[in-house]
Amino acid sequence: MMAANRQYVVENPEAFRGKWSEKFGNDNPIHIEVGSGKGGFITGMAQQNPDINYIAIDMQLTVLSFALDKVLSLALPNVQLLHVDGSSLTNYFEAGEVDLVYLNFSDPWPKTRHEKRRLTYKDFLETYETILVKNGQVHFKTDNRGLFEYSLSAMSRYGMVLNQVWLDLHADTVFAEKNVMTEYEAKFSEKGQVIYRVEAQFQDEMSKMSI
């Protein structure tokens, strides 16, 4: 099924490094979700923002097939799906090619020996900074308090600015009006579980000196 839908599933993403505007057929901003799961978030965002191009990235073919089903049913022209490893993003995106990175309900990898696998570990942050535009942002959501605290600390140590932090996202009725939930988020929310969110921004050297 994936191979039969090449208009949405990119089999050779390396070929589009620096050329994603050609793939989409326009120069609209590019937002990527690393660990997109079943695609509820990315397709919701694509519907909400037709003038933004979205790329869903996930290593698990099974969940990516669910995302493809959603994209096909909605006939979304502004979504592409990548079955690749999120740790090798610089192979698929040129420096400054991406406008925003989303991380939603990433695996917390709670054991210390697995710290390097967390998507907010410093090596991942360095990768995001490389592919993002100058002073680009990472928007991160999770239900895991430990991972959230770790991520805030990791981002701060890296030199990022935490523009907005939510310790109970769904209590913010204003943001709730535009919030697009992931499948996990909807499930956790029904159980009354608190959702955490941060909008963090990278800073160039001049910006860092002016803070």
What does this structure look like?
The structure is a single chain. The protein is of the alpha/beta class and 211 residues long. It has one domain (2-209): Vaccinia Virus protein VP39 (Rossmann fold, 3-Layer(aba) Sandwich). The chain has 8 helices and 7 strands. The protein has helices spanning 20-24, 40-48, 61-74, 122-131, 145-158, 173-176, 183-190, 205-210; strands at 30-34, 53-57, 79-82, 98-104, 132-142, 161-166, 196-201. The protein has a 7-stranded mixed β-sheet, with helices on both faces. Strand 1 (30-34), helix 2 (40-48) and strand 2 form a beta-alpha-beta unit. The radius of gyration is 17 Å and the shape is globular. 35% of the residues are buried. The model has no long low-confidence stretch (mean pLDDT 94).
* Helix-strand pattern: HEHEHEEHEHEHHEH
**CATH fold-level label:** Rossmann fold
How far the N terminus sits from the C terminus, by CA atoms, comes to 50 Å
* Main sheet attributes: strand count, strand direction, barrel closure: 7 strands, mixed
The amount of beta strand, in percent, is 15-25%
Level of helix content? Answer: 25-40%
Strand order, largest beta sheet: 3-2-1-4-5-7-6
Low-confidence stretches: none
CATH class: Alpha Beta
What would the principal axes of the Cα set say about the shape? Answer: globular
Number of domains: 1
The gyration radius over C-alpha positions equals: 17 Å
What structural class should be given to the helix and strand makeup? alpha/beta
CATH architecture: 3-Layer(aba) Sandwich
Q: What's the overall average pLDDT, rounded?
A: 94
CATH-defined superfamily: Vaccinia Virus protein VP39
Q: With helices defined by DSSP (H or I, 4 residues minimum), what is the helix count?
A: 8
Number of strand elements: 7
Catalytic activity: guanosine(46) in tRNA + S-adenosyl-L-methionine = N(7)-methylguanosine(46) in tRNA + S-adenosyl-L-homocysteine
Pfam family, one: Methyltransf_4
Family: Belongs to the class I-like SAM-binding methyltransferase superfamily. TrmB family.
Binding site for substrate: 111, 143, 182-185
